[in-house]
Fold:
Amino acid sequence: MKFDNEQTTIKIQMQKRIMAVLSAVLVALLYFTGFDRFLVELTGIPRWGFVIIFLSFFVIFYIYHLLVASAFISYNDEESKIVIRFYQLNLFKSDKMSYEIPKRDFTGFKINYKLNKFREELVIFRKYQGKVVKYPPVPISSLTKSERSKLIKSLDKFVTHTK
Structure:
């Protein structure tokens, strides 16, 4: 089986760009037009209050995706090995990672939940030099339910074959 979450990744990246542009346009409207006078008269909130509100929407949206560790994920088990490629969708950590595990060495996996089940991570185990080693976690929060289900079913299939 082979899949990736490219469509979800594109959607998240476009949402981030739209939020950034919308925030910048709203702040520009406040400073370069008479829009701020209208808002101040209507609500009584000063211009700097609206700047904080508009920028807060973008920051909250961005922090949400940092906390859930939104990531691009590609999965392929059609060859003799399980291949998982991923990278997180943020400005600070864009390392592209790739795990290639021979199916005969794959020993299992588990799903970790962090931040009160806000973030999901896949931890993979394999035999290496006579020991069972653990790979660093793969963030899977940005997978859809069907993609997550496909991933778990596929990995389960290899766990039962190695027992």
Observations:
- The longest strand covers residues 119-128.
- The two ends are 21 Å apart (CA to CA).
